[in-house]
Amino acid sequence: MIFSLSLSQGTWIAKVEASDQTNSRQRVAYTIFSGNENHIFSINRHTGEIRVQKDNSLDFEVSPEIHLVVLADSGLQTAHCRVSISLQDVNDNAPQFEYSSYRTAVWEGQVHNTYIMQVFASDADSGMNGQIEYSILSGNHNEAFILDSVRGILATNVLLDREITPSYKLVLQAADRGKPPLSSTATVRVQVVDVNDNSPAIPPMEPVVIAENLPAGYMVTQVSANDVDLSSTITYSFSDNSSIRAPFAIDRYTGVITLTRALDYEEQKEYTLTVWASDSLHQTTGDVKVQVLDVNDNAPVFSQVSYQVELSELVSADALVLSVSATDRDSGLNGKIRYRLLSSPLQGFYIHPDNGSVFTNKALKAITNSNLIHLLVEARDGGDPMRSTVTSIDVLIVDINDHEPLFHQDIYTLTVPEDTPTDTTLLTLSAEDQDWSPENTHLDYSIVRGNEEGRFCLEVKMIPVENQMKHVGKLVLCNPLDRETMESYALTVSVSDRGTPPLNSSAIVMVTVMDCNDNAPIFSSTEYHAQVSENSQIGTRLVQVSAQDPDLGINSLLRYDIISGNSKGHLKLDPQSGLLVVNHLLDYEEDSKYTLTIRASDGGESSEHHKVAFTVVFITVLDENDNTPYFMFPTVNCSVLENLPAFTHACSVHAVDNDLGTYGQLTYSILSSCFMDYGSGSPERKEAFAIDPLTGDIHTRQTFDYERESEYCFVVEARDKGDKAATVRVQVAIKGVDEFSPIFTQKQYHFLLPENVKPGETVGYVMAMDHDAGVDGLVEYSFVNLSPFFSINKTVGAISVSGPVFRRRGSHINDDVVELVVSAGSPRLGSKTTTCLVFVNISSSAEALTGVPLDAHMLSLSVSLIMFVFVLAIFVGLVLRYKLKEAAIRKAATIAAHLNSSSGSISRSNGQSDISLQEMTRPSLLLTKRDIALPYNPSDSSGRGSAEGETAEDQEIKWINEFPCRKRDEPGKQTTEIPDSALPGDNISCHSIDVGPEHILAVNKCLVSGMPSTESLHHFKEEGGGEGLLPAILRVRDLEENVRTKGYPPLSEAQASEDCLSSLFCLEEQLQGSYNWDYLLDWEPHFQTLASVFTDIGMLPDEELQGGREDLAAESSCLMYPPPLITGVAQPGIRTVPPRKPGRVPTLSRKPSYRKYAYSPLARNTGLTPSAMTPTFSPSLSSLTIRTPSASPVVSETGVGGIRLDSGPLTASLLEAEIQV
């Protein structure tokens, strides 16, 4: 069922019926079982009619259909049915906007149909009742907006202008299409947002009137511009034209116009200011007129600061003096001026108050008797307060010249000497004038007659006369007087004033001149000229000078003298007549002219004051050809390179002619050749050279060829103007130039190397020829690339063998030929050269070991072999060194043990160990001589560890190998001295001595004459070595015992002092390579406790040394003096034993010694000797006690000196002397 919603309460809806088939009479009760929760419907219980119970609860929008379940109950059975009620929509809901009011904004000036906003409304109805249309009900003035009726979009319809309508209130309606339609409204407030679209406007302003005396900073007015735009910030400024000179400033933000300086009405009366107003986007202008109000701020100003006027002294009353004029920059009453006189002497003047004209009241002579009147005039304006200005008028009274000046006398007389100096005042003239003005009283003096020569002058000067300055005329002598010219003068002097017209008067001045000697003599000519031949005789007249003197009497007497130019006295002048004559023979070459200064003096000899005059006499000596030209050298040699062009300068010749005039001018010419065939030869040779006739420069006339002609010779003549001549021989050598290259006789040379050729033999010759002559034609030969087999003789070109020639094994035919490049050129540097090829066939030479080139093979083989041998030698040396060191240590221990066991069992052997003191001393003497002749210091070291190391040791071993010991032929012969020419540093003389049948071998004794320094022992001992050398200090029996038991002799005392093993005995078995020679080579210092060593030495008996000199001589002959130290390098780990200071040896004499090292060992070693060292040592141990050069008795300035043992009674005591260590 479909029902409309416009049902009222009680409206019948439907009726349901139910029946019971089983019992039709049973009443059925109806109820709504479900669907009626809101009790909208009601049902009749008995009839089943359904009616509307609550019509206001039906709402189509809430539930368009209602489903009811009706229950029928008969009491016994029940049944139900469904009742569907469809509601029909009724337009009962009006459209509703989302908001009742809206607010929005839009920029002004937007284009048509600009979107503003969109409104939404809803309607609960459906169908046509729910369709909404939008419209504007009110507030849309001028149809400014349009509204989309369907979508509700609000847009602009016209251009909005906020300045016209700043906001709109629109009433919008939303209506549905029901019948009747329902609607609702909403309010929309549209705010038009301002846009700066309007320019500011400056309203017209009235002119501003301000006084001109207002100060700077005064506010003139304020400009206010209007802008209809909101929140517009307006800034103000003047236009460029207004702000340049106008004295105004405007505030940028307030528009207040102020003064920057005070105004001046007189300068500008009105200002038009153009003001710019800007809102940062738009700009407008407006004019502000400022009118200046005049203030009486200017005083009247006269046209002149002061006035001056001149009036004649004859001016009468009411005469116009002058008109003054003043101006006032103010206007109106402030600029109206009136004049008045502030001062007027004796009321003699008055002024017109309006025009400023000044007039006289009286005649000037009645007003004042002076020449100046001072008036003051005031000009005042009519302003309030009044301003005035004062000026002065100086009235000058003009004097009328009505009086003439007069002299005090009519005639003046003077007497003046003629020698009066110029500028002398002769007379002072003065005149009087009754006028008083400066012009009329200014007097001028002048000479009007009698001064035609101008000798006098009148000077006008101001002098004080009676407290007044007065003009006077001084008669001054301007030019010298000359009595001889004028004896007296009559001068007419005039005086005149400067009035108008001028007045004058005159007087006569008589001047008489007195005579004086004031005139000097005057020569008739200022200079005289004369000529004389150099051959003129003495007394020849030359010239006569004469002078005149206008003075009279003694002042006119003249005397002539030569004051210069005649120092040699060749000329003579007569003092009275002035005649000049020759006084000596003349020579043109010596003096070609004379310049004489002649003086004429007046006044005679008795006068003290002379007047003199001078003249010059020029005497020219005429030359005579009395000198013959000559050349400085008889022959002139010069040279010219070949191939130079013609007119090349070769050389210059110069002849000397002692004549100085024209006779001394020489002309040069070539006469002939030095040889006879010059004229008959070829024209080229005859005209090969030319000479400059004036300068003597010789130049070539052709190009020369050195190979064709190398020398020219010709005779040059020098002739003067007098036909006197001289000749010289000129030899010209043509120098060659290397212009041809050498040419070999063959392009290639082939030589065959002969078999078994030896170095130096010639293989073949090359030859080249050079067409140049001289040095450039010589040919020298050389190899371009040096050859290892051949050399070439540079002069003859002989190619010879320089060394062994080898060729490669299995080489080809081409490899059997050696190619050489030979260069030929002259000896001169930079000369031209030529090369050629030389092929030498070496097929007959021996073949090389390898197939590589000979030179490369030899080089590689040599380098490889040397490196292998070097590495092998180093390895073997290191191994042997290590083995030998171990053996040496064992041997040293054996020696020390033997010393302790055999010290008491050594016996003397047949007297062969007797040693004399003389023989023991001899080696030391020889040593000293050798050291002086050949000083030797292998390393210059201190013996304490030199950096020379292995180098010094190897060098000394080399010396030992190169110079072995010499054997003595006669076994029983005594020891001989070693010559000074022995080997440097290691002179060893070997001898053989027969020690008796009980000896088992013959000992070669070597006496060494070189000992570098005994301090070597000191360093050696203190570094821990030398224990193996101790047997050398024993007696001869110790030597014999050691020879028997060990096979080698002990070291000598001298050797112990040297710390080296090169001085060991040269035994035959050692020379044959026994273990003792190995021990020598492997020797190095060893150390053990020195205390035990010296304890053992101290236990040795020394009574055997108490015998005669025979034992000493025998023992001395067995001792060895060592060569230089093998090595000065200390072994690692050896420590120095601190020494004691040596004691004094009373019986030993020594030579002066000097320091030999950079430092003294005494300063570095200050320890004490061990207590085992007792002062019981024999002299045989004395060398062990020597420590430093400064303490050693055997050190001299040249090295080690010898110890001199004096023979005699003191010998025994010397041998027993104790040497402290």
From TrEMBL:
Lineage, top-rank taxon, reads Eukaryota
Spell out the subcellular localization from the entry: Membrane
Q: Which InterPro entries match?
A: Cadherin (IPR039808), Cadherin-like_dom (IPR002126), Cadherin-like_sf (IPR015919), Cadherin_CS (IPR020894)
Can you provide one Gene Ontology molecular function annotated for this UniProt record? calcium ion binding
Q: Name one GO cellular component term.
A: catenin complex
Q: In its UniProt entry, what is this protein called?
A: Cadherin domain-containing protein
* Keyword Transmembrane helix recorded: yes
SMART domains to which the protein is assigned, alphabetical: CA
Can you cite a GO biological process for this protein? Answer: cell migration
Q: What PROSITE patterns would the database entry show?
A: CADHERIN_1 (PS00232), CADHERIN_2 (PS50268)
Outline the extent of the Cadherin domain.
10-97, 98-202, 202-302, 303-407, 408-523, 524-631, 639-744, 745-855
Q: Which residues cross the membrane?
A: 858-880
Region ranges (Disordered) = 934-953
Q: Which UniProt keywords apply?
A: Calcium, Membrane, Repeat, Signal, Transmembrane, Transmembrane helix
Q: Does the keyword Isomerase apply?
A: no
Where is it predominantly found? membrane
